[in-house]
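Severity: low
Component: inverse-folding endpoint
Summary: output formatting inconsistent between runs
Steps to reproduce: submit the following structure tokens with default settings.
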């Protein structure tokens, strides 16, 4: 039975509180596209992606019209391309250009999977792909890249961490005439999930089906609106309960969209990623949720505790609504994509050090942070290492997506537009970590890894 009040509530969420399905992401395995000839492999890649995803955008648009639910992005994730490079050799950027071409042909917003999984060391194809990332991102429009450098089971590959500091810097340098966008499409993970629908970190894990549909739902504006109606004297357990109930409703909407898209496309439904993914739009901010809970401004004392409660309540509500919750699922804190985070960073209340503390209790990590353009590769590597250590020890996914603002002054900002937003340059500690980073090797897995 349809409840009229529930229908009206959902309509209000969509029209007035920025509720949307942030993405439907088709994951496609390219393992059967491997070939010793890179040109033949690229041809197979294009043909398989086009065959499976040619109706993805149209299907999303049909669901939007049918239910009136905005589906902001239609995306594709593929098998980590380093695995194909291992078989074919050659210039990995050929694969990036193939992915870019097919993404344009089928009309998706982004395609992810120009990736390598090197948490325990480099295998064939990994280093070649990683070193090609800056060029691949500079020479394509739709391609996103990710590298997993650590895990709770394996420890942290510090040789990869060292390499990624330079790769991030070079990706920004090669796209400095485009707001350093290359670095904004590159994320470095610890404990990367195989079924993440969100960019830039989406890739189709080796353990996933041949083709699957994952859904990413968002709704920070809805949560904030509900909390704004609560009395200021309400106990925190009451606040958490309201968040859980709201997350339940948001997830049910995602379940509907995922099931419909899966049936229409004839591919299995994978997971719903219930992540409160903010946008620069006013009222669609995780920072503003924390402020509704009772923090004067995001980054002030109490921020980490409020975020921990929010993240936990979101997950509990989502799990009750669907048996297919996965991916990252939690509260995202990307600075340039969140109006409240942008304001807090501009005022100096929100610092990188505070953000690092916050990442210990939320999804995913240091995300979309603009740093000084003269930050050294070693400093970037050390930021990656710190964040990977939080993920490794706490058995959670963490990540780093920082954008060195090449050629900009401290008072200036990068302007990406759209969902990527804009952001001020945040100060970075200038004490050198070069000796540690130059050591290389591997930080051993923690005691928590022994759970067999």
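Observed output (run 2 of 3):
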């Amino acid at each position: 039975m349809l409840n009229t009040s529930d229908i009206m509530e959902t309509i209000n969420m969509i029209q007035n509180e920025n509720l949307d399905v942030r993405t439907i992401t088709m994951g496609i395995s390219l393992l059967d596209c491997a070939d010793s000839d890179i040109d033949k492999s690229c041809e197979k890649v294009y043909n398989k992606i086009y065959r499976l995803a040619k109706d993805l955008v149209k299907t999303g648009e049909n669901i939007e019209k049918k239910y009136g639910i905005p589906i902001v992005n239609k995306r594709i994730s593929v098998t980590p391309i380093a695995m194909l490079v291992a078989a074919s050799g050659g210039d990995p950027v050929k694969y990036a250009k193939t992915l870019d071409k097919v993404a344009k042909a089928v009309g998706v917003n982004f395609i992810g999977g120009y990736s390598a999984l090197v948490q325990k060391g480099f295998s064939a194809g990994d280093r070649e792909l990683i070193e090609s990332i800056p060029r691949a991102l500079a020479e394509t429009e739709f391609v996103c890249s990710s590298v997993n450098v650590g895990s709770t089971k394996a420890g942290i590959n510090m040789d990869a961490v060292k390499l990624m500091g330079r790769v991030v810097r070079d990706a920004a340098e090669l796209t400095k005439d485009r707001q350093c966008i290359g670095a904004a499409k590159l994320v470095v993970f610890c404990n990367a999930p195989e079924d993440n629908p969100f960019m830039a970190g989406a890739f189709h894990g080796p353990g996933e089906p041949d083709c699957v549909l994952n859904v990413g739902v968002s709704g920070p504006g809805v949560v904030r609106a509900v909390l704004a109606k609560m009395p200021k004297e309400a106990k925190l357990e009451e606040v958490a309960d309201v968040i859980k109930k709201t997350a339940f409703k948001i997830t049910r909407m995602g379940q509907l969209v995922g099931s419909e898209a899966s049936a229409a496309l004839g591919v299995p439904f994978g997971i719903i990623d219930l992540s409160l993914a903010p946008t620069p739009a006013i009222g669609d901010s995780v920072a503003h949720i924390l402020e509704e809970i009772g923090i004067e401004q995001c980054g002030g004392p109490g921020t980490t505790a409020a975020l921990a409660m929010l993240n936990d309540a979101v997950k509990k509500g989502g799990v009750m609504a669907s048996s297919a919750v996965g991916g990252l699922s939690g509260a995202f804190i990307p600075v340039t994509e969140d109006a409240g985070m942008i304001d807090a960073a501009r005022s100096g209340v929100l610092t990188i050090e505070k953000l690092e503390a916050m990442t210990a209790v939320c999804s995913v990590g240091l995300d979309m942070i603009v740093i000084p353009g003269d930050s050294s590769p070693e400093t970037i590597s050390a930021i990656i290492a710190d964040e990977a250590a939080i993920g490794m020890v706490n058995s959670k996914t963490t990540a780093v997506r920082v954008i060195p603002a090449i050629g900009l002054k401290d008072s200036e900002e990068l302007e990406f537009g759209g969902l990527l937003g804009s952001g001020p340059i945040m100060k970075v500690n200038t004490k050198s970590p070069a000796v540690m980073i130059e050591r290389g090797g591997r930080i051993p897995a923690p005691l928590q890894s022994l759970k067999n």
